[in-house]
Amino acid sequence: MLTSPSDPTVFQRRESEARSYCRGFDAVFSQAAGSELIDADGNRYIDFLAGCSSLNYGHNDPDMKQALIDHIAGDGIAHGLDLHTEVKARFLTAFETHILKPRNMDHRVMFTGPTGANAVEAAMKLARKVTGRTNIVAFTNGFHGVTQGALSATGNGYHRGGAGIVLAGVTRLPFEGYMGSDIDTALMLEKMLGDPSSGVEPPAAIMFETIQGEGGLNAASAEWVRRVARIAKDHGALLIIDDVQAGCGRAGSFFSFEDFGVMPDIVTMAKSISGFGLPMALMLVRPEHDKFGPAEHNGTFRGNTHAFVTARIAIEKFWADDSFQEQLKQKERIILSGLAAISEMVPGARLKGRGLMRGVDVGSGDLAAAICRRAYDNGLVIETSGPNDEVVKILAPLTTPDTVLRKGLNILMDAVRDTVTDMKFAAE
Amino acid sequence: MLTSPSDPTVFQRRESEARSYCRGFDAVFSQAAGSELIDADGNRYIDFLAGCSSLNYGHNDPDMKQALIDHIAGDGIAHGLDLHTEVKARFLTAFETHILKPRNMDHRVMFTGPTGANAVEAAMKLARKVTGRTNIVAFTNGFHGVTQGALSATGNGYHRGGAGIVLAGVTRLPFEGYMGSDIDTALMLEKMLGDPSSGVEPPAAIMFETIQGEGGLNAASAEWVRRVARIAKDHGALLIIDDVQAGCGRAGSFFSFEDFGVMPDIVTMAKSISGFGLPMALMLVRPEHDKFGPAEHNGTFRGNTHAFVTARIAIEKFWADDSFQEQLKQKERIILSGLAAISEMVPGARLKGRGLMRGVDVGSGDLAAAICRRAYDNGLVIETSGPNDEVVKILAPLTTPDTVLRKGLNILMDAVRDTVTDMKFAAE
Amino acid sequence: MLTSPSDPTVFQRRESEARSYCRGFDAVFSQAAGSELIDADGNRYIDFLAGCSSLNYGHNDPDMKQALIDHIAGDGIAHGLDLHTEVKARFLTAFETHILKPRNMDHRVMFTGPTGANAVEAAMKLARKVTGRTNIVAFTNGFHGVTQGALSATGNGYHRGGAGIVLAGVTRLPFEGYMGSDIDTALMLEKMLGDPSSGVEPPAAIMFETIQGEGGLNAASAEWVRRVARIAKDHGALLIIDDVQAGCGRAGSFFSFEDFGVMPDIVTMAKSISGFGLPMALMLVRPEHDKFGPAEHNGTFRGNTHAFVTARIAIEKFWADDSFQEQLKQKERIILSGLAAISEMVPGARLKGRGLMRGVDVGSGDLAAAICRRAYDNGLVIETSGPNDEVVKILAPLTTPDTVLRKGLNILMDAVRDTVTDMKFAAE
Amino acid sequence: MLTSPSDPTVFQRRESEARSYCRGFDAVFSQAAGSELIDADGNRYIDFLAGCSSLNYGHNDPDMKQALIDHIAGDGIAHGLDLHTEVKARFLTAFETHILKPRNMDHRVMFTGPTGANAVEAAMKLARKVTGRTNIVAFTNGFHGVTQGALSATGNGYHRGGAGIVLAGVTRLPFEGYMGSDIDTALMLEKMLGDPSSGVEPPAAIMFETIQGEGGLNAASAEWVRRVARIAKDHGALLIIDDVQAGCGRAGSFFSFEDFGVMPDIVTMAKSISGFGLPMALMLVRPEHDKFGPAEHNGTFRGNTHAFVTARIAIEKFWADDSFQEQLKQKERIILSGLAAISEMVPGARLKGRGLMRGVDVGSGDLAAAICRRAYDNGLVIETSGPNDEVVKILAPLTTPDTVLRKGLNILMDAVRDTVTDMKFAAE
């Protein structure tokens, strides 16, 4: 049989200009394991991007890998629409047993199309259907995806500019801390919802990320989240927590909100839920709001059978007891310590984030880009986020061995130091 | 390690009410190969649904399966965002060599989120961006997905009813044949676009499926498609052909439109593009319209590395020469012959569709459902489509051996005969 | 006290570029009576424009004039918000006695802001509120105003282009005869509303003018109107007839639809309802749909007290018995005869309209404009309408004496003859 | 000729439920002069509502009255579309000479449909056209009208609830003081517009009333207005000041903003601009933004010829020199003194407003309603405003003689005292 060559000139010739990460990280990658990426020339990179938090358990986890190979080799179903399959039953059982029940969550699982955006679209539609309202409150610097419904809730102007149509049905309010620490944005939300003449319609839902991944690692406090949850309840709105990026352990616990004393009506999940980086997304919804009719929100790839195999392993392996979560604390300390050192090198730098979703605001997008470029030259894949891309963001696999974590942080520290030094020279 | 059991009661307990196909086909499936599905009790079913045309090459094609296992076993990248990867380069090269070049298509490939809806969202956004216009012309009975943008273009009222917000930016016009064969709907389109007072804004795009998969297998003629393409050009609108369901050989050729003498500005693909049923979608766009900025339309799962492996094999195996396409003609004859026999059993029945996307309109959704239910009882998975679910639709894998195809058609014929007979008895 | 001069240079200096009629009819007008306009230099013009049908009873009708002077002189209320006033009671009583009761109409009267657009906005909002639906079916070449809601229903692309925002919530379908006489557009409406997959949501209302004043004097037949009324009823939609231009006798009877055997749920009126050209508009609504809460749709100038005075006189004087309506038939004959003569002068010309809302489609906007310009030079004010301004439109006051009507028609005939002759010379 | 009787039962029988003011003030009014209303039984009322500020110069001002009678008696044009007329030229000249020029305003005048809402619709459309942007920033508790475009900018939930369609294209931000005096809402506006990821699109315009008439008499400070004007300029947005209610002297000067050191790009005016309570509205726009094409925003009643007559007199009589404006200061003192007395009677009461647009927030809508009801029983027409109708609002004609003003205030003071006393008794 034919084997088409791997010709790197084809990207330039045939891939759309919309391609993006490959511009900053321009190697042609071929293999990956754990926290390492390997390119076609055999160069190795420590991965502090982890598929934007889609690879929380690292690349090609050996247990998931074996289970997936066994499944494929045994002619296990590869595509099953939303039919009942053995592997889906196993995943749901594991998810019920190890995730939902221990957290007293009675939520149902809806498999949407396998992207975070699709889960968000489903959540917004469902909240509107359940409440009979249209308005959804979202926040400054929130990111929820770029399909039209999700994009309405996304704050990023570059992405919104691509909509080509007026984005409606969302009221934008300031996230916690947006106006500085002395201005209480939850109070503002409460005031506007309580005022019949504020111009803010009673919302179907209030939706946010507890840690804004793309928006610059702004982390909401437990108290703010609790107050917003209470305000939502008081005003008949559903609480939607978009845990696409911050979920699956990234915040230090399975759900980013589980220590906050709130019970969201809807949770959206994607990215690391498959465990292996495979496309999969789901929406959790409390039974009383599980009101879509059969296939009312549908899609060919709702549910991904291969992903059910690996997702089940991920849950059984990492979340059946507390050991993994305990390890995360140690890794968080290592990251914090590295970031603290970095922040001392950059005047005015601020630490951002929570759990293992951390970064440092270096004050400018140019500086952050220069740092990441230099780190990449030295074998570390790391990206920026924030309104002006001014936050260097660490999204290392949660399974990264401490030594690798330290090694990556060292590369980053060197990159920061050298970049800052260069800039000083350039300025003189 | 733990292994969660496959407990079928979990579906009722934990899966959302939105689940759908599993209601009609209530087995718990575990394996599949070629054109057969096998359930947990070992029962075998001929599959005339094929993941709604996502499994055009059948389940677990051995060559794709082996390549995928090899890739996984060798720690090939599982998730690569939109980084350059060897497997993506190979896929693009194969796609260029065997699909685009032979058809004189200079299109670029944009990997969107791995669902047809996402490709459609990207296409609509891009057409709006390129033209600076908002309006998109779509047609009666069209189906393009259920995220907000795509849903605006979808005709189905049940799905539209789930939007929870006014669906804007789309003008709906009658598809070919909608008002009967003597009313020229292309002329109507032309008249409305040419009339500055028609209330139809100059469109960014005219978008349609050449064969409406969910809308009842309405097949547009080459002449109508050519005329609409010409009208689009005359009015500065992009031509978008949504080949998500009709593409990848389903219509008898790789693209559903390739014998029609048109060159769409944008083509959306998903479903069978991965070859293996894995989530993958892409948008083809002519270079002059490839105007998204980097990541302007983005998403974590744009591009699916595992799918690149199988998609490349699918192209190399089935589309490198004409042999597969030749075989399709024979299979089309077999299907047509079976459907002709069926249509004689049902008074007023009408044949629908084109290529290997065929069906019979039996006049009522109740009758169609009864037929499919009986066929399922006899080991055939087959579904309906159409505004009132009145069309029994055959979407058998294109690789189905002739004997299996005939066997499936025989089950279907028996189901029709018996159902019609029962109904006559019941009526007497 | 000061008296500011009438300085015509002020228009150029201080009036917005949006000014329009004054560009074609560039005199400075000062007085008017009956069917005549008089400019500041004492030139007299026959008025076949009549304030776009706002002056159906001519300028400064002596009875209305006297009543209005008496009202003002006696310190009658000039502005009364929506308070009860004696003059409003008198108007309502006259309207009930001479208009509603004889036509078996149980409608309530809602005084909206004093423009047709405002009445249309109120009608659209009310239909949406009553039905809980959003979609409103409007037709090609319809004109309903240019505020955002009304503009959504207006077909004219020039006006729609000024919206600056996507116009949503309206489905556009072809008016009677739009696709030629052999294509039944009511059937198309019925088919699309009856098809759950057509993409046309169940409408809150179907709204149209029985004679499209701005759209080119397209007159719907009684049968088409009846069928559309029936379709609306069958599909739970309100029937809104926009009688802003065709009402108040313009079609030969008080309402344009009163001989058609339909009972609209909502009727919008403006233009000639005040009788005197004063701003006034109202919406008629059947009691079961009179569902706005107090002031839910409001506005400072809802109801115009001066207009109540003249509107009452108009009704008492012209509509208390049949004599006026009888006279209209004779005038209609005169107009028709003139237009028939004109149409013979222009190859391919077509008569348009109904009642005393008539015109001739001369095939091009340039020709129509040239005719009107020449007529104006000879003392006749007359305008065009239609998608390309290709229809010369007669909207003479209904009270125009036969001699004046004939005199105006003669000017028009001469203008047509001379323009056509000039064009022939120019072409040779 | 017939004369229809003034039968008050007709209101119940035939006027829509949307009627409103007549519910609270249930007399049938017949005459009015100066600051007095007279009902059909000869009862006299002091008018502190003044047509919601449409009668700033009182009822039936004798000079305007005589000029209007003369105009009508002399067959002056009553309705002139947007033709040039002598009376329009006179009005424009007066407006230019006495209003625009002395204030160094180079604005053009666009006559829109004769309602404030229509002027606002035109302003929003124009700002969008000029900038090519869609978003308009409006504020909490703002009121701009109830047609669809204007309603999008209006804050009142009761009115928004009547829309029946999602209201899009407006970002809502807190007005000055909304979150208390220590939170700087202009800073918030600046921060959100300056943040590319805030989710607030670059606006076409920032629009507000300097004193929110319906929203509770919230008065913006000169500093806040200047800062917002600067922010608008910095971000390429037009500054629209909606002076429909606060203009024409109500704030103590002709324009409410004229002492603030800002030059709005667009100003909307209606209500008292005619001087006599006749429907009239206009939009002022700086020449560089006067970009509507001819009739692009149109309407039959744009310009009201009778209103031009009275509007000119109003300007010549009251604004040709400073004497009227000087008198307003004395009246403001009288009102303030009365309100100060009132606020001492109601625990927690707060004075609201600016200029002669003043009121007192009595803390609850029930109390405010009871006060107004009692005042009405004693011959004073006065209304409430505010999100919960908790502000008793004085909108007396600006021409009210001091004695009448004091008399009205005394009735109001008695009403407050008695109502508070009654409430205390009831509570005990």
From TrEMBL, chains A, B, C, D:
Cofactor(s) in the UniProt record: pyridoxal 5'-phosphate
EC primary class: transferase
Any GO MF annotation of the entry: diaminobutyrate-pyruvate transaminase activity
Alphabetically ordered keywords of this record: Aminotransferase, Pyridoxal phosphate, Transferase
Keyword Transferase listed: yes
InterPro entries, A to Z: Aminotrans_3 (IPR005814), Aminotrans_3_PPA_site (IPR049704), Dat (IPR004637), Ectoine_EctB (IPR012773), PyrdxlP-dep_Trfase (IPR015424), PyrdxlP-dep_Trfase_major (IPR015421), PyrdxlP-dep_Trfase_small (IPR015422)
Domain of life: Bacteria
GO biological process terms on file: ectoine biosynthetic process
CDD domains: OAT_like (cd00610)
Coiled coil residues, start to end: none
Record's catalysed reaction(s): L-2,4-diaminobutanoate + 2-oxoglutarate = L-aspartate 4-semialdehyde + L-glutamate
Keyword Protease part of the UniProt annotation: no
The protein's annotated pathway: Amine and polyamine biosynthesis; ectoine biosynthesis; L-ectoine from L-aspartate 4-semialdehyde: step 1/3
One Pfam family here: Aminotran_3
EC numbers for this chain: 2.6.1.76
Purpose of the protein: Catalyzes reversively the conversion of L-aspartate beta-semialdehyde (ASA) to L-2,4-diaminobutyrate (DABA) by transamination with L-glutamate.
Family listed: Belongs to the class-III pyridoxal-phosphate-dependent aminotransferase family.
Protein name: Diaminobutyrate--2-oxoglutarate transaminase
UniProt organism field: Thalassovita mangrovi
Gene name of this polypeptide: ectB
